[in-house]
Amino acid sequence: MSIAQQTATPARPQRTRRHTSLEVAPVPRRGLALAKIAGLVALTAFGAALAAGVTGLAIIMFVTSVGG
Question: In this predicted model, what pLDDT tens digit does every residue of 20-54 receive, in sequence order?
């Protein structure tokens, strides 16, 4: 590395290590986790039922229009 490159390159600041005290872990909220999982399952079931209903309606409309 040439002298020009050395002077043009900014010096990196020294990282000092901070000593942090240990913190108490938060209390796990099992009820909240179960409620979130139940909500996701319900939303997925609703989406599947909606998709099945739309597909069934489309099939019925197609059959009635073709069958005349």
Answer: 678 888 888 889 999 999 999 999 999 999 999 99
Q: Tell me the C-alpha distance between 4 and 29, whole Å.
A: 59
- Domains contained in the chain, number: 1
Domain span at residue 36? 31-68
Closest CA to 53 of 61, 63, 65: 61
Integer Cα distance of 50 and 47 in angstroms: 5
With a threshold of 0.70, does the pTM exceed it? no
Would you give the distance in Å from CA 67 to the centre of its chain? 46
The answer to whether position 47 is within a domain reads yes
The neighbour count for residue 39, using CB atoms within 10 Å, is 10
* Residue 2 falls inside a structural domain: no
